[in-house]
């Protein structure tokens, strides 16, 4: 057997670049090589080949539209230690080529490694790892100052270390799998090349460029691929990416968030509709970003292993499966949404259930202009224990009533369906964390008990036997108001009457009933009644019903009867002018007043001209009852009298504008109207201060034929 050496000059240039969305694709394994390059396969092997070709077909991507992450692949060169195909035949390194010379291959010295060089805009895996570690610290940190320090360090890394323009490494197989998520960027063009080398990867890593040139073959052609604008899924990590497999046995913490790689892209990109778009420029903390304003996420689940992907029930609407749209939390100061979906309340994902998810990035807040969907990734969680549900509402209280409908709700992390039991109601199932009951399922003023059992499937079939919530209780509304809160009671109750009573918790309206009147619906626990609904010195009884509806329907029992008696308006007092007062003509028109009567809204006063003075010369001044009769709103009025003599006047208080509902007529007050020249002195001369006209004066000159006290006419 000749002894052959591996030399760089003997190695062929790699050929046939390929791009896969499944890192488990291995075309060069002995088993797959056999299936792909052997004719006349057995029926069993033919089935294996069919399955392999289907897998390759699913995993192969168009080099001009590569959905991340991506596995770069090429044909192994002749002499590859892992085997290669030649003339439709699978070869191994142990098959020394016919006519082997010292310049070619021997058994111990095969092509054991490859060198790969990639050019294009990329991210440093070391920087990405540091950023992720700092983000985890921020989530756990309670000291605001430390948080700021971590955030500033992230900014520094992004600025100084994150972006790289090239990457070179070595591999021990004819494939390259990125060493971290998010290394390649969406919507970018990459150029790359590879060459086969004789030493192992470890030895090759330690060599300088000159030594490598001696032990490595020629470079392949420069290949190129373009990544899709679609986001790259990141976590939970799917070991076969877009393949049919999934990550399994994840912890509760690992299924809490769906994460994807950040997008900050100034370049134009092609949307799912074939049109060209650009992300808007967004300023955040003096930095410019070009990121999606929304994401749309689709989430699926399987009822059983091997079953079809079904729309997640939390998304399903009217037979459709709309995306979950993620927008910026403006209240938290976000300008664009985070690169994750956080199942904060643990209502989407649970144990032992296969899930799948994919997403698109959208340039606008309405999520209309979006990329294609990302790869579909899959995961499932381990068999952890579901905690017993805790009450959210109504409170566990059998005393304080709650309104109808009663929405029973609970907190139960990682449970996605439930069995509930409510006293007096058949057992039920739900896939939500609440259930609503109304009349007539629930009766008024009744205490109910309830409990709920968590399940980890959406049909409430897989439920832990001994895990139930505590038994909680609630009381429905509808009881009458507490008698001690019903007012008024007693006697001498003023009109208008303010009725008030307990605002029974959960009540949406009340029915108010008072003797002599039809019941009426009121929204609040109070009502005001006035004349003519109520009259003075009258006994009344009244009751209230509590209702569970706004319109006075679905009501409980009447309250106990409450009674009261209304008051009587008092008589006016303290007149001005005082009783038996002398009033002078210069005081006309004069202000007549009296003490306000409590709760009176009107007053009726009457002035009678009782007797004519001997000084009164006017023939028209004759004694007369009701010379003035007037209803006023204030306890005073301006009165103008002209006839000299004696007067009487009385006032009564009223509840209404027509003075139909009055108090007793007040006492008779008297006054006498006298002629006077004015407060500065008496006599005719004093009256001249009013002017030279012979009317409208406070004094009549007996020496003239006319009465100067008569009002002037126009």
UniProtKB/TrEMBL annotation:
InterPro entries the UniProt entry points to: FN3_sf, Ig-like_fold
Source superkingdom: Bacteria
The protein's name: Fibronectin type-III domain-containing protein
Organism: Candidatus Nealsonbacteria bacterium CG_4_9_14_0_8_um_filter_36_17
């Amino acid at each position: 057997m000749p002894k052959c050496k591996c030399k760089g000059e003997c190695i062929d240039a790699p050929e046939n670049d390929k791009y896969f969305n499944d890192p488990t694709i291995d075309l060069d394994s002995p088993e797959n090589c056999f299936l792909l390059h052997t004719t006349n396969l057995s029926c069993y092997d033919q089935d294996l080949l069919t399955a392999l070709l289907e897998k390759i077909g699913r995993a192969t991507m168009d080099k001009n539209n590569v959905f991340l992450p991506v596995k770069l692949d090429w044909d192994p060169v002749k002499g590859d230690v892992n085997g290669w195909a030649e003339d439709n035949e699978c070869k191994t390194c142990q098959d020394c080529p016919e006519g082997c010379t010292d310049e070619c291959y021997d058994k111990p010295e095969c092509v054991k490694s490859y060198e790969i060089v990639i050019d294009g805009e990329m991210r440093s895996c070391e920087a990405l790892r540091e950023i992720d570690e700092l983000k985890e610290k921020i989530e756990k940190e309670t000291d605001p100052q430390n948080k700021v320090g971590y955030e500033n360090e992230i900014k520094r890394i992004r600025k100084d270390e994150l972006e790289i323009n090239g990457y070179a490494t070595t591999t021990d197989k004819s494939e390259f799998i990125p060493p971290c998520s998010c290394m390649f960027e969406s919507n970018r063009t990459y150029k790359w090349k590879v060459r086969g080398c004789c030493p192992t990867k470890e030895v090759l890593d330690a060599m300088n460029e000159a030594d490598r040139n001696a032990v490595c073959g020629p470079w392949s052609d420069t290949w190129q691929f373009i990544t899709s604008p679609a986001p790259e899924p990141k976590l939970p990590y799917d070991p076969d990416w877009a393949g049919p497999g999934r990550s399994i046995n994840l912890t509760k913490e690992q299924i809490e968030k769906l994460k994807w790689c950040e997008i900050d892209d100034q370049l134009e990109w092609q949307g799912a509709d074939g049109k060209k778009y650009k992300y808007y420029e967004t300023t955040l903390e003096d930095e410019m970003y070009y990121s999606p304003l929304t994401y749309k996420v689709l989430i699926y689940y399987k009822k059983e292993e091997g079953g079809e992907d079904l729309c997640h029930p939390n998304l399903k609407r009217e037979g459709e499966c709309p995306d979950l749209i993620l927008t910026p939390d403006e209240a938290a100061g976000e300008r664009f949404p985070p690169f994750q979906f956080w199942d904060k309340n643990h209502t989407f994902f649970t144990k032992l259930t296969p899930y799948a998810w994919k997403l698109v990035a959208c340039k606008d807040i309405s999520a209309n202009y979006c990329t294609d969907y990302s790869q579909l990734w899959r995961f499932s969680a381990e068999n952890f224990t579901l905690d017993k549900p805790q009450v959210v509402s109504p409170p566990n209280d059998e005393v304080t009533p709650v309104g109808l409908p009663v929405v029973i709700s609970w907190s139960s992390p990682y449970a996605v369906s439930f069995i509930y039991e409510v006293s007096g109601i058949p057992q039920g199932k739900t896939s939500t964390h609440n259930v609503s009951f109304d009349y007539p399922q629930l009766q008024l003023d009744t205490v109910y008990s309830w409990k709920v059992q968590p399940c980890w499937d959406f049909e409430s079939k897989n439920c832990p036997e001994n895990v139930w919530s505590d038994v909680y209780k609630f009381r429905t509304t509808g009881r009458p108001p507490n008698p001690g809160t019903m007012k008024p009671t007693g006697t001498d109750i003023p009109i208008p009457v303010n009725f008030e009573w307990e605002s029974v918790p959960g009540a949406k309206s009340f029915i108010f009933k008072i003797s002599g009147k039809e019941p009426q619906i009121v929204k609040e626990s109070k009502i005001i009644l006035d004349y003519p609904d109520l009259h003075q010195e009258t006994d009344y009884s009244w009751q209230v019903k509590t209702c569970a509806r706004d319109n006075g329907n679905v009501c409980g029992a009447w309250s106990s009867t409450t009674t009261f008696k209304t008051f009587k308006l008092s008589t006016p007092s303290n007149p001005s002018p005082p009783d038996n007062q002398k009033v002078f003509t210069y005081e006309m028109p004069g202000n007549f007043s009296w003490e306000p009567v409590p709760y009176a809204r009107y007053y009726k006063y009457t002035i009678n001209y009782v007797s004519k003075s001997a000084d009164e010369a006017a023939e028209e001044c004759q004694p007369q009852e009701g010379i003035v009769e007037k209803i006023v709103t204030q306890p005073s009025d301006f009165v103008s009298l002209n006839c000299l003599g004696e007067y009487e006047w009385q006032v009564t208080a009223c509840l209404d504008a027509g003075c139909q509902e009055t108090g007793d007529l007040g006492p008779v007050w008297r006054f006498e109207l006298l002629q006077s020249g004015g407060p500065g002195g008496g006599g005719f001369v004093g009256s001249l201060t009013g002017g030279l006209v012979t009317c409208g004066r406070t004094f009549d000159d007996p020496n003239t034929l006319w009465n100067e006290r008569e009002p002037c006419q126009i």
